[in-house]
Specification:
- 34% of the residues lie in helices and 14% in strands.
- The chain is α+β, with helices and mostly antiparallel strands and 239 residues long.
- It has one domain.
- The strands form two sheets. A four-stranded antiparallel β-sheet has the order 1-2-6-3, with helices on both faces.
- The longest helix has 27 residues, at 62-88.
- The N and C termini lie far apart (37 Å).
- Bound molecules: iron/sulfur cluster (2 copies).
- Residues 126-128, 138, 162, 165-168, 220-223, 237 line the site of one iron/sulfur cluster.
């Protein structure tokens, strides 16, 4: 099976739901311990809902927190289903939880969803250190199923398309975004201070989402298609 056939089969298996995109990537360029010994990854991208992202203006909302958790549960259901599907086809599979931030590991998880999504060619990494989907922009959440399948696909890394835009840096109340363009040699900490983001949220918005989710740097991004794009923002990134 080639990678397109696998993605099509998975989409059919999960019922072709709207707002879900499936990709596959070859992880063999990463150290074995980073990819838990698996050779490929299936990425699940789920779009966030426009009405909820559209109501975020200058602070997090209770609706966004509830939506964030609902989408994480949805992704975990999808990756579990996909894991069983891949096992039924004879592959070993390892679904990675949608939300897995560990403060002791500088807010990273056991495997970076963004790394696999980026290698799949479905999008790129913004100055906000988020995955920006080719169609839906920053307003997405990610899931991953690691599989022991050799797809031998060339890297499909898409360079940053942020250009001179600094909207996410400017709006960030924690001053956690450095405002630098992502390149392959950059680590997340070069773009974004996860500790500053987390501490600001805990100190100011404990009453909303236990101070764990914000959404401003998602909502403001001109590539976020579910939000009204003003001509001013379009000009900033030449879209
Ligand atoms: S989630 Fe909020 S506080 Fe954290 S980086 Fe984005 S805008 Fe800043
Ligand atoms: S808001 Fe602008 S700088 Fe930030 S990720 Fe989006 S396009 Fe890039």
């Amino acid at each position: 099976m080639d990678s397109h056939t696998i993605c099509d089969n998975i989409q059919k298996f999960i019922g072709n739901p709207p707002g879900v995109d499936i990709g596959i990537s070859d992880l063999s360029s990463l150290p074995s311990e980073t990819r838990l010994g698996f050779t490929s990854a299936i990425t699940v991208v789920v779009r966030l809902i426009s009405g909820i992202i559209g109501e975020i203006s200058d602070q997090p909302t209770i609706s966004y927190f509830a939506h964030y958790r609902a989408v994480n549960r949805y992704i975990d259901d999808l990756t579990l289903k996909i894991g069983f599907f891949m096992e039924s086809k004879g592959f070993k599979a390892h679904p990675i939880p949608a939300s897995q931030s560990d403060p002791k590991a500088y807010y990273a998880g056991v495997f970076s969803h963004k790394t696999a999504a980026n290698l799949s060619g479905m999008g790129w990494i913004g100055k906000n250190a988020l995955f920006i989907h080719n169609q839906w922009g920053s307003a997405v959440r990610l899931g991953t199923v690691l599989i022991d399948y050799d797809i031998e696909s060339p890297k499909k890394i898409i360079p940053s398309r942020c250009g001179t835009c600094t909207l996410c840096k400017d709006i960030c109340p924690a001053q956690a975004i450095e405002g630098v363009n992502w390149t392959e040699d950059k680590k997340r900490k070069d773009l974004f201070d996860a500790h500053a983001c987390s501490e600001y949220m805990k100190n100011h918005f404990q009453h909303i989402g236990r101070g764990s989710v914000c959404g401003l740097c998602i909502a403001v991004c001109p590539y976020t298609q579910c939000r009204q794009i003003t001509s001013d923002k379009k000009e900033k990134v030449n879209i």
